[in-house]
């Protein structure tokens, strides 16, 4: 049975057959990771859409729920989501419109605003999490415990290398 990755793999094999210096395995592994990431997102977005939410809003709710008092400053939410402050404001607007969060002034500094997860937000999360957990368990059940641990170690090793490369490889020549 062909997988959704087969056309990409065939193209890479063809290129490798024509270019002796083509780093086939490295490109294959990179493309596999990218393809899998896309499939994971696609699967997750379909599931979230069926529950009336998207990945960004969901991650914002999870971020809030994971805080000590279920509260966070908009700038902290922006950092946690890896988005701009402007986008974090749009996200907060949508969450507030749905009644899942509320904006409150800080007890210590009235200039400081906090986003608080509401009871309705908690209830929504408790409704959407079980189907997501089931789906993730179904996905990862295809790997043994040992394979999951190996994949985690390998993925962390590659991520550390990417972080290292990001710091050194793409700096302007003047800063080196």
TrEMBL record:
Domain HTH marR-type, residue spans: 26-160
Matches recorded under PROSITE patterns: HTH_MARR_1 (PS01117), HTH_MARR_2 (PS50995)
Keyword Kinase: no
InterPro entries reported in the protein's UniProt record: HTH_MarR-typ, Tscrpt_reg_MarR-type_CS, WH-like_DNA-bd_sf, WH_DNA-bd_sf
Keywords: DNA-binding, Repressor, Transcription, Transcription regulation
Pfam family, any one: MarR
GO molecular function: DNA binding; DNA-binding transcription factor activity
Taxonomic superkingdom: Bacteria
SUPFAM superfamilies per record: Winged helix' DNA-binding domain
Record function comment: Negative regulator of the multidrug operon emrAB.
Record-linked PANTHER family: TRANSCRIPTIONAL REGULATOR, MARR, TRANSCRIPTIONAL REPRESSOR OF EMRAB OPERON
Name of the featured protein: Transcriptional repressor MprA
Origin species: Tenebrionibacter intestinalis
The encoding gene: mprA
């Amino acid at each position: 049975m062909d997988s959704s990755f087969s056309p990409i793999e065939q193209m890479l094999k063809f290129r490798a057959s024509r270019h002796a210096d083509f780093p086939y395995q490295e490109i294959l592994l990179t493309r596999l990771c990218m393809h899998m990431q896309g499939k994971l997102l696609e699967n997750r977005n379909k599931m979230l859409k069926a529950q009336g939410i998207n990945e960004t809003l969901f991650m914002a709710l999870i971020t809030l729920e994971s805080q000590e008092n279920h509260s966070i400053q908009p700038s902290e939410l922006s950092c946690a989501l890896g988005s701009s402050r402007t986008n974090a404001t749009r996200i907060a607007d949508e969450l507030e419109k749905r009644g899942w969060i509320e904006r409150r002034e800080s007890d210590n500094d009235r200039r400081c605003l906090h986003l608080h997860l509401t009871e309705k937000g908690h209830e929504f999360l408790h409704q959407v999490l079980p189907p997501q957990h089931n789906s993730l368990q179904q996905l990862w059940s295809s790997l043994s415990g040992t394979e999951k641990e190996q994949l985690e170690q390998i993925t962390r090793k590659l991520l550390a290398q990417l972080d290292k490369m990001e710091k050194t490889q793409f700096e302007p020549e003047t800063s080196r």
